[in-house]
Queue: 3 jobs
Job 1
Amino acid sequence: MKDASGSQASMQPRQSLFGRIAYHYKKILAAILILALALWLYRHWQGPLLPGYRVELRPLVQTVVASGRVVTPSRVQVGSEITGVVLERRVWEGDRVAPGDVLAVLKADELQARVREAEAALAQLERVTRPQAQAALKQAQVQLELASRNVRRQRELIQQGSTSQAALDQAEEAETVARVALQRLQLEADALAPGSPSELLLQEKLAAARAALAQSVIRSQVAGTVLTRHAEPGDLVQPGQVLFDIARDGATEILVPLDEEHLQVLQLGQSARCVADAYPAQPFAAKLSFIALRVDPQLGAVEIRLRVDPAPDFLRQDMTVSMNLETGRRARALVLPNDALLRTGANQAEVLVIRHGEVQRQPVRLGLESLSLTEVVEGLADGDLVLADPATSAVGERVRVTPQALPTAADERSGSRESPFNFN
């Protein structure tokens, strides 16, 4: 009995120890549960965790982004003025030409024969017909002198009674015939003299034949670069047919169509950074040089031109180019990412700002805009927290905000080509 009672007494302290330990564990577990519940209730009271932005002061550059194509100041189309067969083609695409350079030669056997015929006719006049006329004129002058001398002698003989009246009449008639012949030959000689209408007519015929022959040689009238060729040796060409397209030398330009709503931010002389789609690693500079005076009513677009001077060697006619045109700059601007704005007008928007842990709708007035950031002129202050998505929460709700980093200029350059404006 003693051993049993002793064993029973030793068990009771052990049970008492385990009970106390279990009791303490229960209290600790209950405290943890209460704290977790309190934390959950606090978090629930605070609201959901949402991404947002902290409004900051930083430099801002407003840009307009769009795509265009490379154009030259003018494109010249060269054709033939006569019908003929191409004998030679002397240029290829990309060749540089100067005024007077030969582009192609047409077969011109008939035209050359006309030139030789006109040259022969003029030579005939100068070397044969005119000298013959002058010689005949001199001979007629001699004949008239002889006839006049004979008339004088016959008159003297009549006075002496040594001849008849019939002889005198015959001598006077011969003198009249010689005088008429001299007048006729004088007119012929005058008609063949240097500078006479006959000579001028032959010279004009020769000039016309040479001009026609010159048309068989197709030359460039401008300095530039051959873009396309549409003729090969053996082709029959006709007047009005385009044989070559030449880009006239001059400052290279980029033609860009923009939505008309961007006219308010455009000014001549604004700088642009351009990138050819074919050479994305080689950007180049340009300046806004032209803004069209009219808007395309079908597209609602206005045409602008950017002057590229000097132009990179890799630029080609009609090449696609993306431009980033700087239209405004601020050294310090209160900025907010574009995705946090709910647009309500041209320069108006609303944001969801967090004040005292609650969501409040705040109207703001906007200023400059870049690819990802917009200047807030009124409505917010430096350090305000704004929800990243203006449609994720209702006004009056409590929320918690996880601040996100604002986009940087490097992010804009390496990111999408999308613009805050609605570009074509």
Note: The CA atoms of residues 182 and 361 lie 117 Å apart.
Job 2
Amino acid sequence: MEILTFGCSFNQAESEAIRGLLRENGLEHAPVTVVNTCTVKSPTETKILRLLRKLEAENRKVVVTGCIPPARPSVVAEFPSFSFIGVNVRDVVEAVKAAASKGRYVNIASSGEKSCLPRIRGNPVVGILPIAEGCLGGCSFCQTKLARGNLVSYPLKKLVHEVRGMVADGVVEIWVTAQDAGAYGLDIGSSLPELLSDIADVEGDFMVRVGMMNPDHALKMLDDLVKAYRSEKVYKFLHLPVQSGDDGVLEDMGRGYTADGFREVVDAFRKHNTTLSTDVILGYPTEDEKAFQNTVELIEEVKPDVLNSTRYWPRPGTRAAKLKPLPGNEIKRRSRMINGVFKKVGLGMNREWVGWEGKALVSEKNRDGTYTARNRWYKPIIVKKGRLGGWADVRVEKATYYDLRAVVV
């Protein structure tokens, strides 16, 4: 059994559930390859389709899961020998059984709430907790909405129960994840602050990393959200995508907030010394030079600790795909420029941590034998020795624009 995973932490969680479901049903050694797909970017989709063609040429038994099948249903006909289940991971058992016996199973409809599934974790000390699927937004460029649909929040009590199980299994770092964590509960009369408060009440020594949330939802619950982050069990880490620093482009994107709204959320959290991660899209079809400069100025102003910059790619079925794209070389220029700006900003922010001493949670062993630890501000700290899942006393001696280098003291 081979499971190949592309995409975000939500997809990683679904691959962990797929492994758990297959083991629970005695299928963990089935002669089948599962490909868990992502549809956010054109290059990623192209890479996945190339892989599927390779597997087809090798006469492999394949089950295709994830976002591509429901977002692009025509893929089912392109690979007539493969089974497809999309994001309805509970169907993986039937799909693998069919594929293993040279049959075919196709059902790419959504499967609704998926909490408390059995899991085999990729990292034994990190638990990924999907809290909702889908979103309430209508971004003009996003194909994920076609795959994941409207918001379905998972029941709060089930999520807390799942956290208790994770902690009992030795998990020390929990990733709260969703397509938009800030929307959690709006369909079931709850909220992200309420969920975080209940998770923090679970007994045990663990930390919670809150996943991406959009500014429009964060603004509506800002005081309660800041209060929830004060818990000692919640990393002081805010992933708040802005996508553009220009209000006109934000409106064209259908983002539902302004650049000043983004600044308001950032300011509220920065008063409490919070690490900021944000995302920008470069080269949206209506982004002229002035709009791009507004984005550059915003990054220079707010000084994010982490910046995920992405070139705009038209995605089939989205409103933005109907717009005339900007020249590719111009998009590349803007991407290079924004990355250059961030390297200076990120290095400056990280240099302020040189000399810091304190505790950091060792949550990952790297391929080169080093470890990644995280302090309570979720700063990535590379150390040469550590105990996975344990706290280490460290002193930061060096900074790059993307991490800190430390010694254990």
Note: The chain has three domains: 2-100, 126-351, 357-408.
Job 3
Amino acid sequence: MLNFWPFKDSPDVVVFTSRDVIDLGEWIHHVSHDLDDGAWQFHSINGSPDDPSDARVVSLKNIVDMDHSLLEIADLPVGWIASRKAKDASWVRTKA
């Protein structure tokens, strides 16, 4: 359980991810903090789902509870992405 919340967005804000992250337990490879609407997206190495039925919507707290390394990118600016090459690798930030 977290004793602090470093994100500007509330823990219950809706975020987008995919079936392979939520249902299959794949590690998160790519995060985007979208410029157009400020939405967060969290995807595995397989990328965003091609099939809309593979898309999943969860709370930001739920996805952070699944992967505490996301706390490292809580300050990712809108319009930026973060990715990593392996589950235990450091996040690399890039302006989208």
Note: Strands lie at 14-18, 30-33, 40-43, 55-59, 80-83, 92-95.
